[in-house]
């Protein structure tokens, strides 16, 4: 049983009673009459051939309260898109696939690029951004959840708990972040959150002094969770990063746009496991190494917008402070693991910390060298201003792709 402690400056919704999925879904079915609900699934084609996504689809087939499912499909050619249409055809809910490499969406993306309002990088951020735009365009959903497609421990209770806070008609939350224990196969996972983000935020607070934004970020139990939910109006003016800073960027945006009492986090799973990234000790452009650099830069950029000045000396002090705090966390996690009968490789943990510490300097140097870097994708409000009929054209492109699939099938 989880504790009921409220830490930080946002509301934490716990799993105190292990309420049944059926009970939660009964409520959500009722809520759906007032707040129709949708789900965004950003997916790589390769995930259709893995173990996790087929199980996720089987679970989603049992969810009756969803009004729509929007699937963003990356790295797929024409035949693979057709295969995806067959794969997701089992879903009983209204669903559509955004074939991001398809010629129709590529042509629209090119026009948006010429207007200076399209994503500049390929990746999950771009996929999520287009799915958010499509969800706004259809207007089918008032409360929307987003989760990854590689969750090997998935059950539909995760979705129910994730949507509940933004779907309940008597709750005033605009945004909800999922959290969970990254424990699987007898091991404690989640190295980037445990060994980089939390100690880095603590080091920033110690180095820079009191800061409400850092207090806000420190309130989240799993800041890098890819599962969150929100009301539809959140989508109109949010600006999300296109790199690995996506989750940090989303939290930063809701901090900017909403009062703390409109935000919450919820316990969505007892155990959670998904695809693991390589540490990539010798390649700063891959795996957890690139992820850590992007996350660092996302935090530095946001602090700069609040007037914080950074210098090379700042980053040297920050690195030293982070390193000491992170090493102390290794002992804490090791003791926690032992008490729970879990395995923790302290040598591997400290190797990760050494790399993360070095990447604080790398990210800091890149930040200082490119102060005008704009990794954020423009808000959909701005896109509509630049191309007033973009929603109609986005819907038409998706429907034309679907019609092509249906014609070849028939």
Q: What is CATH's topology name? A: Spore Coat Polysaccharide Biosynthesis Protein SpsA, Chain A
Number-wise, the strands total 10
Low-confidence stretches: none
Task: Summarize the helix and strand pattern as letters.
Answer: EHEHHEHEHHEHEEEHHEHHEHHHHH
Morphology call: globular
Q: Structural class per helix/strand content?
A: alpha/beta
CATH architecture: Alpha-Beta Complex
Mean pLDDT: 93
The CATH class: Alpha Beta
| Whole-number tally of structural domains | 1
GO molecular function, one term: transferase activity
InterPro entries: Nucleotide-diphossugar_trans
Protein name: Glycosyl transferase
Keywords: Transferase
Task: Give a description of the structure.
- This protein has one domain: Spore Coat Polysaccharide Biosynthesis Protein SpsA, Chain A (Alpha-Beta Complex).
- It contains 16 helices and 10 strands.
- It has helices at 21-31, 45-48, 52-60, 78-88, 103-114, 124-138, 156-167, 191-208, 212-218, 234-237, 246-257, 287-305, 312-339, 346-369, 380-386, 390-409, and strands at 11-13, 37-44, 66-74, 95-99, 143-146, 175-180, 183-184, 187-188, 228-231, 263-269.
- The chain is globular.
- 52% of the residues lie in helices and 12% in strands.
- A hairpin with a 2-residue loop joins strand 7 and strand 8.
- The strands form 2 sheets. Strands 1-10-6-9-5-2-3-4 form an 8-stranded mixed sheet, sandwiched between helices. Strands 7-8 form a two-stranded antiparallel sheet.
């Amino acid at each position: 049983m989880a504790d009921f402690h409220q830490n930080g400056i946002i509301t934490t919704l716990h799993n105190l009673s292990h309420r049944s999925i059926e009970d939660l879904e009964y409520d959500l079915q009722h809520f759906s009459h007032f707040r129709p609900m949708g789900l965004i699934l950003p997916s790589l084609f390769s995930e259709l051939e893995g173990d996790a996504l087929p199980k996720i689809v089987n679970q989603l087939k049992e969810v009756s309260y969803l009004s729509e499912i929007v699937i963003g499909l990356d790295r797929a050619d024409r035949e693979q898109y057709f295969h995806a249409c067959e794969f997701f055809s089992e879903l009983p809910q209204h669903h559509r696939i955004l074939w991001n490499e398809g010629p129709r969406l590529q042509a629209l993306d090119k026009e948006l690029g010429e207007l200076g309002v399209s994503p500049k990088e390929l990746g999950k951020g771009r996929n999520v951004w287009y799915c958010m735009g499509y969800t706004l365009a259809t207007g089918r959903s008032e409360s929307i959840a987003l989760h990854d497609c590689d969750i090997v421990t998935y059950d539909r209770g995760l979705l129910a708990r994730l949507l509940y806070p933004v779907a309940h008609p008597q709750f005033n939350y605009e945004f909800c972040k999922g959290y969970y224990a990254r424990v699987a196969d007898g091991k404690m996972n989640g190295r980037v959150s445990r060994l980089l983000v939390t100690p880095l935020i603590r080091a920033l607070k110690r180095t820079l002094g009191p800061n409400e934004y850092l207090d806000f970020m420190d309130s989240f139990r799993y800041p890098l969770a890819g599962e969150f939910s929100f009301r539809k109006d959140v989508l109109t003016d949010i600006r999300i990063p296109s790199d690995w800073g996506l989750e940090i960027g989303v939290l930063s945006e809701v901090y900017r746009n909403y009062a703390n009492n409109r935000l919450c986090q919820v316990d969505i799973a007892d155990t959670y496991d998904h695809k693991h990234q390589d540490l990539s000790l010798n390649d700063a452009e891959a795996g957890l190494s690139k992820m850590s650099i992007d996350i660092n830069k996302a935090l530095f950029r946001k602090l700069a917008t609040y007037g914080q000045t950074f210098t090379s000396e700042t980053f040297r002090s920050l690195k030293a402070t982070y390193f000491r705090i992170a090493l102390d966390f290794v002992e804490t996690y090791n003791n926690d693991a032992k008490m729970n009968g879990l395995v923790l490789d302290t040598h591997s943990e400290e190797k990760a910390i050494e790399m993360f510490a070095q990447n604080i300097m790398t990210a800091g140097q890149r930040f200082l060298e490119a102060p005008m870097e704009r990794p954020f994708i423009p808000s959909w409000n701005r896109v509509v201003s630049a191309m007033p009929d973009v929603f109609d054209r986005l819907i038409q492109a998706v429907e034309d792709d679907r019609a092509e699939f249906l014609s070849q099938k028939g």
